[in-house]
Design goal:
A twelve-stranded antiparallel beta barrel has the order 1-4-5-6-7-8-9-10-11-12-13-14. It has a two-stranded antiparallel ribbon with strand order 2-3. It is globular. It has a single domain, classed as Porin (Beta Barrel), CATH 2.40.160. The protein is mainly beta. The chain is built from three helices and 14 strands.
């Protein structure tokens, strides 16, 4: 919910990549997809949601958003994904966020897959600071059948010099042929913070239903977060909320 080589130096320095520049990058990625190797799997979808949430916290101020998702999976195990989000902010369409990640997945045995990767997300107007922010993470995870566990490490989590770890569990359960139940729980832990920071551990969760209808998918999820004074003091929406949406697979 990360091309990639062009942003590598910015990620290493921990600097923010603006949403405007990243949206132009997404356009270039879409054009590049036509030249992608024929044996690679290419995916694209457009979606609308009543809110955009990052680890239980609204990044669109509770306003509706539209997203474009692009994904590339190579038979070698390499993968790439990009998501651009724009929102109806104060009755104007404005960029909200861009999320980019790239990694490599390898099957350890028929029912167990290991993956490792790098992710970068940039927010135009993140509620915590009231201005643009970004973070970069390295991650590693294991997927056993329908259960995925990952650990993330960030050296600049939405602010320079703030180190955090984030652990998460995701599960998906097929209820019927076209209906699935998905759940998520995550724990954010500060590792090293700045003197001015007021941040503590935070738990976030999500439980939702996805309904497939041909090339369309309908979504409904209950999500929220608890435990960080830093977010609450900046007026970010951390209350639990029902987020609904719909997607069209291109």
């Amino acid at each position: 919910m990360t091309a990639h080589a062009g942003l590598r130096s910015a990620w290493v320095r921990g600097r923010r990549v603006s949403c405007t520049a990243a949206f132009r990058l997404l356009t270039g990625i879409a054009a590049f997809a036509a030249a992608w190797p024929a044996n690679a799997e290419i995916g694209a979808a457009v979606s609308v949601f009543s809110d955009s949430r990052f680890r239980g916290i609204s990044v669109s101020g509770g306003d509706p958003v539209a997203t474009l998702d692009l994904s590339f999976d190579d038979p070698s195990g390499a993968y790439f994904a990009a998501t651009g989000t724009a929102g109806l902010i104060s009755r104007e369409v404005k960029p909200v966020s861009v999320e980019l990640n790239a990694g490599f997945a390898r099957e350890v045995r028929p029912d167990l897959t290991f993956d490792v990767g790098l992710a970068h997300s940039s927010y135009e107007r993140y509620p915590v600071t009231g201005q643009g922010s970004s973070y970069t993470e390295v991650y590693a995870g294991l997927t056993h059948k329908t259960l995925t566990a990952r650990v993330h490490l960030s050296p600049h989590y939405l602010a320079t010099g703030r180190w955090t770890t984030y652990g998460e569990l995701d599960h998906s359960l097929s209820l019927t042929r076209n209906l699935s139940l998905n759940s998520h729980v995550g724990l954010l832990l500060p590792v090293r913070t700045r003197a001015a920071d007021d941040i503590r551990s935070r738990v976030d969760w999500r439980i939702g239903l996805d309904r497939q209808v041909g090339r369309f998918a309908l979504h409904a999820a209950f999500t929220g977060a608890r435990g960080v004074r830093h977010y609450d003091s900046r007026g970010a929406k951390t209350d639990s909320a029902l987020v609904i949406g719909a997607s069209l697979i291109l």
